[in-house]
């Protein structure tokens, strides 16, 4: 990874965490939806990042969110899980023809269809982990699933919005 890419990832981390802890942690839609925009950072971790670094970055991102929301490791567990599952998701979503060295996991390199699939599946898995760990029972399985699904859709909306804004800036 070159220095420019490292600096842009550090900047992205700081921006999404700042937005998450100042705005989105206090956004409460319909009583239970708080978009987790900090996932944008994890979604855009470069493909060539070694697994242990991706796991560490995901854990630190989730742990930072846990510090500000007093959730006792809930987000750290969910973000670490999606970082662990990321290679499987990428192999499932990206064919060998589409993936070349140097590509970044974003719209500018792989297109909207790929990004929406990748982000949607990853965010849904994260939301399911967060909600089911929070409830820690299956007695209200479908209610919890509904809440996780709406949480994932709200998060996906803001992640797509961020990616749209970033791509507009790149084109200028």
Mean pLDDT: 87
Please provide the ordered H/E string of secondary-structure elements. HHHHHH
Low-pLDDT runs of 5+ residues are: none
Q: Which assembly state applies to the chains in this document?
A: single chain
Please outline what is shown here.
The protein has 172 residues and is mostly helical. The chain has helices at residues 3-22, 39-43, 51-69, 74-93, 107-135, 141-171. Helices cover 72% and strands 0% of the residues.
Structure description:
- This protein has 172 residues and is mainly α.
- It is 72% helix and 0% strand.
- The protein has helices at 3-22, 39-43, 51-69, 74-93, 107-135, 141-171.
- Helix 1 (3-22) packs parallel to helix 3 (51-69), helix 3 (51-69) runs antiparallel to helix 4 and helix 4 packs across helix 5 (107-135).
- The mean pLDDT is 87.
Task: Draw up the topology in text.
Blueprint: H1 3-22, H2 39-43, H3 51-69, H4 74-93, H5 107-135, H6 141-171
């Amino acid at each position: 990874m070159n220095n420019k890419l490292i600096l842009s990832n550090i900047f992205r981390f700081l921006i999404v965490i700042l937005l998450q802890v100042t705005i989105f942690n206090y956004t409460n839609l319909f009583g239970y939806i708080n978009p987790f925009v900090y996932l944008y950072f994890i979604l855009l971790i470069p493909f060539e990042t070694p697994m242990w670094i991706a796991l560490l970055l995901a854990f630190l991102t989730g742990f930072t969110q846990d510090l500000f929301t007093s959730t006792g490791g809930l987000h750290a567990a969910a973000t670490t899980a999606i970082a662990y599952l990321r290679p499987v998701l990428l192999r499932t979503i990206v064919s060998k023809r589409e993936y070349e060295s140097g590509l970044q996991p974003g719209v500018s390199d792989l297109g909207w269809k790929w990004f929406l699939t990748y982000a949607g599946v990853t965010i849904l898995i994260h939301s399911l982990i967060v909600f089911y760990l929070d409830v820690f029972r299956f007695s209200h399985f479908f209610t919890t699933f509904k809440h996780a699904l709406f949480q994932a859709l709200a998060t996906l909306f803001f992640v797509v919005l961020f990616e749209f804004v970033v791509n507009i800036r790149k084109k200028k």
